[in-house]
Amino acid sequence: KYLDLSSLLILIFGLTPSLVLQNLYIHQIITYMFLHSPLDPTHLLMNMLGLWMFGSPLEERWGTKIFLKFYFICGIVGGIFILISGLLFVSAYNTPTIGQSGAVFGLIGAFCIIFSESRILFYFIIPIKAKHMLWIIIFISILYALAGSPYSFPAHIGGLLCGIFIIKKLYIPQVLMLNLKSIFSRIKRKRLRVIEKDRFIN
């Protein structure tokens, strides 16, 4: 019964490219992040460790609201990479993906750029700078993919690249905050300044 329930949950809420693209299970792009295999508890533990280790300093720096938006955006982009891999590779088209690794890898990318000079115990043993760890993680992810690892390479790289792109191009911009009131108020201020200048031109 437990395994049947697990399979059912993965079928409905895990991310399967064929179900999303053919049956429009769009919700799976988000819900897959909330599932982990009961047969592989280390996956959940490692994700929780990464969320705490790299997410805590970012949440403290940005605040919970921006942090959650960043987290879910990276997870969704990781899901989109999974869909793309399903279109490119027949073997991935009907394969479900679960876990929050895409979102966590986005946090890792952000942390390694913002706190690039901070030292981290890589695998709890080797002290290295965060900026160097970023390249090591990318290299290891590629090796895992080439070795046929069951862990989702598209989700990892998709989330990681999303996190890096947001930080490098936007650096936690107001686009993430989606604060429409501040945007409109700025537009109004600019218009008022233009009107005031026009008045004094005459």
Basic shape? globular
Approximate strand percentage: under 5%
Rg on CA atoms, Å: 21 Å
Ends distance: 82 Å
Mean pLDDT: 82
The unreliable regions are: 194-202
Number of strands: 2
SS class? mainly alpha
Largest beta sheet: strand ordering: 1-2
Please provide the ordered H/E string of secondary-structure elements. HHHHHHHEEHHHH
Number of helices: 11
**How helical, in percent, are the residues?**
over 70%
Largest sheet: 2 strands, antiparallel
Task: Briefly characterize the structure.
The protein is mainly alpha-helical. 74% of the residues lie in helices and 4% in strands.
Structural commentary:
With 202 residues, the protein is mainly alpha-helical. It is 74% helix and 4% strand. It has a two-stranded antiparallel sheet. Strand 1 (119-122) and strand 2 form a beta hairpin. Helix 5 (64-88) crosses helix 9 (153-170) and helix 7 (101-114) packs antiparallel against helix 8. It is globular.
Provide tags for this entry.
202 residues; mainly alpha; two-stranded antiparallel sheet; 2 strands
List the helices and strands and how they pair.
Blueprint: H1 2-13, H2 17-23, H3 28-31, H4 41-62, H5 64-88, H6 90-93, H7 101-114, E1 119-122, E2 126-129, H8 130-146, H9 153-170, H10 174-177, H11 180-201
Antiparallel strand pairs: 1-2
Helix pairs in contact: 2-5, 4-5, 4-7, 5-7, 5-9, 7-8, 7-9
